[in-house]
Amino acid sequence: MNIDKFKDRQVIGYMRVSTDEQDMSLQRQALEDAGIDMLSIYSDQMSGKSQKRPGLKSAIKSCLPGAVLVVWKLDRLGRSVKGVLETIETLDKKNVELVSLTENIDTTTPMGKMVMTILLAFAEMERNLISERTKAGLDAKRAREKDWISGPLHGVLSYPKRLEIFTDMWVSGELKTLKDVDILARINEPKITKDGKRVKDFSRQSWNNWKAKGFNRFTPPDFEPID
């Protein structure tokens, strides 16, 4: 592909290799053969996984609306599909066209525009899926916490110091090894809250009610350790 047809546009080249040992000569030669000036080619020597790619950032920043960014292959824009789509979306918002020499993608053409539209649609779908998964995770977390707060462990959750002791036993695995009487003794050790009020003991009945639910399916809610 030759970029002579873009003589009335600003044309920027970008190339990337993952490590210092890899050679950029193949990409550089391809960009130069396409007609891109050496002074208009930006580069990075780092993994496509990295979000901090100064060369790519500078290349996009230098592009004026209507400019054309040329790469040897699409995967130079990012190692993952998500990374490539994010970069394409950035270019689209800035009204910058994209040309990939290897895949023969040219968004200045009707076919290239169609490909771009499909890629952007995939990017939007991925965002929606992530949003749905995040919402589902938060809903599940709230449900778990509600189960805890409304259940017999309310007598533990109401008092931060008790929650800290209880969670320490959870993390260490002692909830499964200690005798009930020893667990209750530890939970009930703090007698006075920070405001000076006496704490009511967590009863054996509450403990038995909670055990009957099966504590293995619960996860302690987030908490701040007490100094």
Please give a structural write-up:
The protein is an alpha/beta fold. The protein has 2 domains: 4-125, Rossmann fold (3-Layer(aba) Sandwich); 147-217, no CATH class. Helices cover 49% and strands 10% of the residues. It contains 9 helices and 5 strands, in the order βαβαβαββαααααα. It has helices at residues 25-33, 54-62, 81-93, 110-150, 154-157, 160-172, 174-177, 180-187, 204-213, and strands at residues 11-17, 41-45, 68-71, 97-100, 105-106. A 5-stranded mixed sheet has the order 2-1-3-4-5, sandwiched between helices. α3 (81-93) crosses α4 (110-150).
Largest sheet: 5 strands, mixed
Shape: elongated
Average pLDDT taken over every residue: 78
What's the name of the CATH homologous superfamily of the largest domain?
Resolvase, N-terminal catalytic domain
Structural class: alpha/beta
Q: How far is the N terminus from the C terminus?
A: 67 Å
Measured as a percent range, the helix fraction is 40-55%
